[in-house]
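Marked as duplicate of an earlier ticket. Keeping the data here for the record.
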Amino acid sequence: MTTVVACIDGSIHAPAVCDCAAWASLRIEAPLMLLHVLDHQRYPVPGDYSGNIGLGSREHLLEELTALDVRRGRLALEQGRHMLQAATARVVARGQEDVELKQRHGDLAQALRELEERTRLLVMGKRGEERHDSDRSLGHQLERVIRHIHRPILITPQVFLPPRSLMFAFDGRPTANKGIEMIANSPLLKGMSVHLVMVGAETGAAWAHIRRARQTLVEAGFDVLTAICEGEVERTLHNYQCEKRIDLLVMGAYGHSRLRELLLGSTTNKMLAVTDTPVLLIH
């Protein structure tokens, strides 16, 4: 796990992905890979029509469709190369010169799974080419990656600014305590002020969890503020982040069961939809 992997596409978020990835890779002193994947649904591999078109008088149509796919694929590959060249120039201008370029044809989540052993941090835009910025829902590709890739994922909005403060959505569970350890040991987050925020009733047990987590971070050199707030989870966290003008949201990725998410929605999805700051998801 040595490389920062940045997903580059033709969306309006691509420049911010470059800026975010350059910043992150320099912070953790890791090489940067710029990855462009041609979606197999938008650019299918030539020859997919053989089972759908009859022979004889319609054989010429199969040949024409195959040739069309070849031309579309070549143009898409060339466009992707130009994207990667522009992305390289942008990250080099921001100080990151250790850059590897990679282009794949297929499924983004599958391509990232194949690179997972090398991946220390994944950087993606909040929305891909299939979404407009006015659309508050997550891109389909992003949601699939969050569910299938077990590496930290840094998600940037359309404009990236280096964060100076972070909020960690803390609930006292073992997974949240692992998140505290990750923050304490992360060169990416070093020097930021940390807000530990728990949503729920103010009880002695809740404050005990908060104090233990705070002590871990203080011993690691962080300036830590704590709060326990009552209310609906997503709205309370979002309001706190806005009121305190916190630059980065750190939270666990999909903490509930898949059935619960289908019935009630996911805190992860909802927070990603409403926040206008970068989000660091940890598993």
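See parent ticket for discussion. The two ends are 15 Å apart (CA to CA).
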